[in-house]
Amino acid sequence: MYKIIKILIVITLLLGSAITYINPIASAEEDSNWNKIKQRGELRVGLSADYAPLEFEKIKNGKTDYAGVDIELAKKIAKDNHLKLKIINMQFDSLLGALKTGKIDVIISGMTTTPERKKEVDFTEPYMMTNNVMLVKKSDKNKYKDLKDFTGKKIAAQKGTDQEKIAHNEIKDSQVSSLNRLPESILALKSGKVVGTIVEKPVGEAYLKQNPELEFADVKFNEEKKPTCIAVPKNSPISLKHLNQTIDEVNNKNLIDKYMNQAAQDMQDDGNFFTKYGSFFIKGIKNTILISLVGVILGSILGAFIALLKINKFKPLSWLASIYIEFLRGTPMLVQVFIVFFGTTAALGLDVSALICGTIALIINSSAYIAEIIRAGINAVDKGQMEAARSLGLNYIQTMKSVIMPQAIKNILPALGNEFVTLIKESSIVSTIGVGEIMFNAQVVQGISFDPFTPLIVAAVLYFILTFALSRIMSLVEGRMKASD
Ligand code: ARG
Question: Membrane-crossing residues (predicted)?
């Protein structure tokens, strides 16, 4: 019996190596990337949806949806391979990292093949060829007739892109502003922070349509057209084969032209700024109010607890509370937000949504400030009150509850109102981790509207209305309390 098994094993091994010898592809055809996609039944496409007409967000029946050439291509790939499609929208410069760590399966984000990127990932056949142009202000067009005219000037480009590299390499002594999202580099140009922004031609054309004050400068970059491809992890021959099959068909049937037309339609304007984007801001307002309200309420409960620890006679507890307060007040909120966001997955292995992480960070941060507010409020009550109440026979808890606290509340409430106002403004920081509050939605609208400025003004006005209304309400309440004295 044993012998038979042994012989069988030897035969299979021999056969196996014979086959690999004859057909080296056979062993190379291992593709764990493709296996995982197939098992999941879902293709996770990473992209940066700030890049019309290739990928952007459009509004259909008040809902956002992804649109653009890359989205159509992704849909076709999914359909051809009987897979569901999941779009994962992130910053362009995090895409390669996400692909290498397996957070996404492929990158379809208008990505140009470059020698540096080829070291990290593999690319399919090209589905598009593009060249670069320099956007300038129309009024400046005559000043810039040659790349040399940009020598020593400030140029913007999207971070991590080929355009950023070109700005460094092809313009002498250039000062490059690398901005996370493309709309930001257009805003830099419009507001005069830079004199030019390098973009790919189809994208530049989309922006020209919406921004009549911009124009292409009459300059030529060194390289002519470069290939745009899909990126896959290294050693993914089967993924490449399937992707290339679809790309071949797309190229043969000129489908990209069709996708471009579709994208142009999806970019069509109808209605004014508010009918089109109002829903984003309303969603933003709701979330901003939600997270800051939960932030102050739970922050107050936690803060009251910390304050009680701090005024505790038992020193170690009081020190602990002091450390908590000092640490939270002495570190930037942005850092705290990131620690909660990445800490929950990296350190605790939990998959917590950005909204919850953002709210937790706000609660923790505000609890430190509120603890101090409460402590100061209690301390402000005259010491004699405690002594008097105690000598009348009330115990500590009774004294706190019916003598000290009612007076302390009058000091605490107004300060708590201020903290709420602060929190509404500070909550904009959680937009960085993708919580859909006002600032986040303003950035989304920047991307879809090709108007980098108006959404910021709208956001500012909204924050102001919220905080102003709140402080009016607070002074009303304060007036009432004074009257009741
Ligand atoms: N083609 C350029 C590159 O690969 C820019 C692509 C930017 N894509 C985007 N979705 N923002 O570097």
Answer: 289-312, 333-364, 453-474
Q: How close is the Cα of 125 to the center of ligand 1, in Å? A: 17
How confident is the model at residue 5, as a pLDDT? 52
From 31, 38, 45, select the one nearest 99 (Cα to Cα): 45
More confident residue, 270 or 323: 323
Give pLDDT, residue 354: 86
Q: How far is the CA of 463 from the centre of ligand 1 (A)?
A: 33
Atom of ligand 1 nearest to the CA of 160: 12
pLDDT above 50 for 21: no
Give me the mean pLDDT over the 354-370 stretch.
Answer: 96
Confidence (pLDDT) at 24: 44
Residues within 6 Å of ligand 1 by CB: 47-48, 50-51, 55, 92, 109-112, 158, 161-162, 182, 200
Percentage of residues in the chain having pLDDT higher than 90: 68
Q: Which of 57, 109, 181 to mutate to test the pocket of ligand 1 (most atoms within 8 A of CB)?
A: 109
pLDDT value at residue 204: 94
Q: How far apart are the first and last CA of the chain?
A: 99
Residue 473 has pLDDT above 60, yes or no: yes
Mean pLDDT of the chain: 90
User: Residue 130 region, left (φ>0) first, then alpha (ψ -120 to 50), else beta?
Assistant: beta
Nearest CA to ligand 1 atom 12: 161
Q: What is the pLDDT of residue 451?
A: 83
* Side-chain-side CA neighbours of residue 452 (13 Å): 16
Q: Which atom in ligand 1 lies closest to the alpha carbon of residue 111?
A: 4
